[in-house]
Amino acid sequence: MAAKVSSKSARKLELVDAAHRVFRPPATVSHAALLDADGDSAFRETLYLMVTAFGRLQACRDAFGRAADLTGSQFAVLMGTAYTQGERGVTIRQLAAHVQLAATHVTTEVGRLCRLGLLVKRPNAQDGRSVLVSLTSRGEQRLVDISPFVRAINDLLFAGTDRTQFSELDRFLTRLVSNADLALDEIRRTENADKR
Questions:
Q1: I need a labelling partner for 190 at 20 to 30 A (CA). Which of 17, 48, 64, 119 fits?
Q2: pLDDT for the residue 12
Q3: 151-189: per-residue pLDDT in tens?
Q4: Which has the higher per-residue pLDDT, 148 or 194?
Q5: Domains in the chain: how many in total?
């Protein structure tokens, strides 16, 4: 006759067994190119590295904003305007696409930067529904003043990176952003289905 094991003893045996067993989590990706002999471990490590890198880039952008007495988003909009305004100005939609921020957010930040005297909005003669945004002379000076700091930080960030690597990174991130839009659509569909 088998000896009866108390529930307390059974639990202790379970804990001992669990301590000696190696749990292999299920793969979080199925693309063969992202798997190796260890499954998706290297993929996971790269994801964590990307999150760290993107967080540090965000921290740098926020520091650029502080150096200009602005927020990080306001800095991005001001700098984005400088690079896209040309001779006549840039639309909110074009500016939003350039700085990769929502058009509604860019509209809000443009309004704030106009109130600070760093940007100016003018009617768009080619499209009466939109405005053209340009730097004021004060906005130009603000960018000139902080450019040594921005340049020094970017030089540190991208030290040891060559043109080929940067081009590959650009292609990778362009694809990642496009794929992320599809992934976020799927997340929304899944979450909406779960609510029903």
A1: 48
A2: 66
A3: 999 999 999 999 999 999 999 999 999 999 999 999 999
A4: 148
A5: 1
C-alpha distances in Å from residue 22, one per residue of 19, 44, 143: 8, 18, 55
Structural domain range at position 84: 42-159
**More reliable by pLDDT, 156 or 16:** 156
Give me the residues paired with residue 121 across strands. Answer: 133
In a domain? residue 97: yes
Q: Is residue 65 part of a domain?
A: yes
136-144 own/partner pairs: CB under 8 Å, 24+ apart: 139/78, 139/81, 139/82, 139/113, 140/82, 142/68, 142/78, 142/118, 143/68, 143/78, 143/79, 143/82
Q: How far is CA 26 from CA 16, 40, 110, 191, in A?
A: 23, 9, 46, 22
Whether 35 is in a domain gets the answer no
pTM to 2 decimal places: 0.82
